[in-house]
Amino acid sequence: WRTSLSGELRSPVPTADSVYVQDSTGEIRVLARTDGSTEWSTKLALRSMTGITIADDGVFVGTDEQLLRYE
Q1: Which residue from 16, 21, 50, 69 lies 20 to 30 Å from 62 (Cα-Cα)?
Q2: In this structure, what is the dihedral angle of CA atoms 52, 54, 58, 59, given to the nearest 10 degrees?
Q3: d(CA 64, CA 50)
Q4: Are 61 and 50 in contact (CB under 8 A)?
Q5: Biggest distance spanned by C-alpha atoms of the chain
Q6: How far apart are CA 33 and CA 1, in angstroms?
Q7: pLDDT tens, residue by residue, 53-66
């Protein structure tokens, strides 16, 4: 499968069932590994300074002002 992103892709993070992707526009999407369909997405209000980290059932992203956690 293939999917289009709004901006340049940052390092994807695969899990057993999904692939977490972030692009240069600040959009984060969770894609199904089986077919690439979007399971969840959000747009960061602040510029991301780090990639995506997955731990303790949360998705963590660092911006230039704060650390964000999504469930």
Answers
A1: 16
A2: 10
A3: 9
A4: yes
A5: 35
A6: 9
A7: 888 878 888 877 78
